[in-house]
Amino acid sequence: MNGPDGPGGVHEEIMTHFRSADGAAPAADAWPALPFDAWKDTYATLHRWTQIVGKVRLVQSPWTNHSWHATLYVTSRGLTTSPIPHASGSFQIDFDFIEHALVIRTSSGAERTLALAPRSVADFYRELFARLAEMGLLVTIHPAPNELADALPFPDDEEHASYDPEYAHRFWRALVQADRVMKEFRAGFIGKCSPVHFFWGSFDLAVTRFSGRRAPEHPGGVPHLPDWVAREAYSHEVSSCGFWPGSEQVPQPVFYAYAYPEPPGFAAAEVRPGGAYYHPELREFLLPYDEVRRSASPDAALLAFFRSSYEAAADRGGWDRPALERAVIDPS
After folding, report:
1. In the chain, where are the structural domains located?
2. I need a surface site. Which of 25, 189, 238, 296 has the fewest CB within 10 A?
3. In 3D, which of 18, 211, 15 has the Cα closest to residue 100?
4. Who's near 183: CB < 8 A, 6+ residues apart?
C-alpha cells in the first residue's frame, strides 16, 4: 500500500477520500466499513504488534486488578500505552494510525519513531527493542503471543507481515466511535467499573461493570494464558461489553456483551436493537458492527445494546441496581 509515494502519499489519499469540504469526515463515513476478509492479514500482524507493545507496559507496571495495568487506550491518533514507569522517569509508546508510525517518547524528551508499514513481526520486534535500548530503556518481555492458538515467538515470526494503512486507519476510526459511546455508557454506573480500554491479548475494546460480589472460580483454558490470570480477571461478578473486529469463527466486526457468571435466563433475554443475537458457543450477545453503522442513529442503537444487555445480566443476577446506578449528568 505504500507504493512509490511512500506512507505520506497514502495518508493524503486516504484523508482526501474521507474529508468533506469543511475538512471533517462525512457523516456516512463516520463509522467506516471494516469487512473482515479485506483486512484479516493486516489484523493478524497488527494484533501481534500490539501484543509486543502491550507486554512492554505489562512488565514495567505494578500489577493492577484484572490486568488493567497492561491495556492500551484509544487516542485521537491511534492507541497508546499511556506513561510507563521506568527508573529514569517514564516513557510512552503510541501507535499513530494517521501518520502510520510507532512513536516512543520519554519524560526526558527523547523520541524515536518506527514506520508502520508491511514488515514482519520479527522485524518489528527487533527494531522496537533496538530503539528502546538506544534510549536507555532496557526492557525484557516474554517473546510469544498470549490468547492466540498460534504462539509462534515474535523473534521468529516472519509469517505475519501485512500492513494496509487504509484498513489500519479504518479500524482505529471504528475504535474512536466505540470508545466514545462506551464512555457515555460507563458514566451511568457508580459501582466499580473498568476504564474503557483495549486488551491486546484478545484485541478488543472493553468496559466492565462489577456487582461487588465474588464470582465462582473461572475454569481458565484460554490459549497460552496462565489460568491464574483468567481467574484473577474474573474474580468478581461482571457485566462486560465491547467491540471486537471478529475472527474466522465470527468473520465480521461485532459489538458484544456477556455476564460472568452467566445468570439463569440470560441467553433468552430480549436485548435491543433487533439485530442483536445470542451466540451459544461464545456465550455472548453479539450485535454486528454493520447493523450499528447503517442504522439511522448509531449511537442510540449501540447504547440500547449496552444498556439492555447490562439490564439482562443485572436483573437476572440480582444486582443492587439502585445502589450501583445513577442518572447521567449533563455537563452543559
Report:
1. 6-20+34-156, 165-324
2. 296
3. 15
4. 196, 207
Pairwise CA distance, residues 39 & 174, whole Å: 14
Pair 314, 321: CB distance under 8 Å: yes
Question: Which residues is 114 bridged to in the sheet?
Answer: 102
Closest by CA to 57, choosing from 90, 28, 27, 11, is 90
Give pTM, 2 decimals: 0.90
Hey, what long-range contacts does 319-328 have (CB within 8 A, 24 or more apart)?
Answer: 319/211, 319/237, 319/239, 320/211, 320/212, 323/191, 324/189, 324/190, 324/191, 324/209, 324/211, 324/212, 325/188, 325/189, 325/190, 325/191, 326/188, 326/189, 326/190, 327/188, 328/184, 328/187, 328/188
Burial class (CB in 10 A: 0-12, 13-18, 19+), 294: middle
Does pLDDT of 119 surpass 90? Answer: yes
Are 150 and 229 in contact by the 8 Å Cβ rule? The answer is no
Task: Give, as one character, the DSSP assignment of residue 162.
Answer: -
- What gap in Å lies between CA 72 and CA 90, rounded to an integer? 16
